[in-house]
Amino acid sequence: MKPDIEAVVRGADLAGWESVEVEYGARSFPVLVPGGSRILEMNEVAPLLDPGARMRASLNAPIGSRTLPAILLSKGKPAAELTVCITTSDITRPVPYKGDSGILPPLLALLHEAGIRRENVTLLVGTGTHRPSSPAEKVAMFGEDVVAHYRIVDHVCDDAAALVDIGRTASGTEIHINRTFYEADVKIATALVESHFMAGASGGRKAVCPALVSRKTIERFHSAQFLDSPLATNLVLEGNPCHEEALEIALRCGVDFIVNTVLNRRLQLLEVFAGDLVLAHAKAVELLRGIVAIPVNEEYDVVLTHGGYVGINHYQIAKAAVNALPAVRPGGTIILAACERDDDPIGPLTYRTLLHLLKLQGPRGYMSTLLNPGWVFTKDQWEPQMWAKVLDKVGEEGLVYCSAVLSPKEHLIVPGRAGWDYLPADSPVDEMARARTMLQNAIVHAVKSPRRKGAAPRVAFIKEGPYAVPVRTPVAVRHEASQAVTAR
Description:
By secondary structure, the chain is α/β, with parallel strands linked by helices. The protein is built from 16 helices and 20 strands. About 45% of the residues are buried.
């Protein structure tokens, strides 16, 4: 532990502090926070009692759309001659496809009852830039029966022969879309709807872009210019350039029907939204917003959060840090508990390289590089750009990254202050115990730091970490804008 930190921690009076439970991967541990700290937590929504029945009911009473049988009849040829392509997510998304409460059994049954032949149905795994799914992953996602009896293919963003050029978007993006999907008579898109810190929310149009487009199209979707917009953020659709680009591409492609689901953190089905690409997805986002959005009417000096189960590496943990931004004041402190479990606890080589560039140049320098006309788009550049947003608000010292997995040497390329700075020489050997110790000491130091001159900081804890989305209330934002005008 650094001497200045040790002096604060060892002399701290924690009387009146209260215990909170912090997630650590699939486990959790308690730490103390000052009494009266604000606990920011999501609304609890009960799962469906009969998810299978609700799935079938949603398919038969779609939102803003004709029923699937009616859509098939409108295609102008016998159902037995129609080709159907159903785009799915890959293994990285826990979409409920199989089983009694899954999407596929009732959807496929409905198609076949209307006369669609099994050999004319293709399941297309929307990989985006991800690797193809393995045979075992296909079974895990769809079940053995579906894998045995249906054609299942993976999208490959670099396979020019498997793509078709359908023009440009209004912003000038070249649209290269998966040929199998585009040429199918009936196009069905399925997905999970959850908050997305770039596109506002997943699902809907994202099952087409970025899931089924070329690498070049994806590069535009993830471009520094799009992501630099303040509207390219959680739960924002209107004016969000990522959302608008993806929606334009999906509409151009001609999606006939979608099936979107909303799950709770225990992966239980909360609701199903089937029907029109725009209207059904909007209803799903409306429900999602009511669950994950946490109104905050002030910014806090210290915000504690965690990477959750989804935070398998530093790349994925960016979501937790970005989600905390609306809750923390400029120059404040974000303390993040990380539990990396991936084979590479930081992320791909390209990500490591760009992360180091961010560490060396700082957020403004990194963004200047990405926006330079001579810069060549590089895979994974968007995730360090998200970390740059964090550093731009709280600074390098304002981000405390508590990981007992990353070594002190690895921290040389990771933005923020390392949790190792808060560990005493006699720190625990057990990984989780070390993480708990560094996190607790980081909280104590942030609250009791001499620079606060005895003033008690405002502290908040985001209970659900990356799953929750603190949202500034309009009243608070207007008040701060008024104060800024008065100050000028």
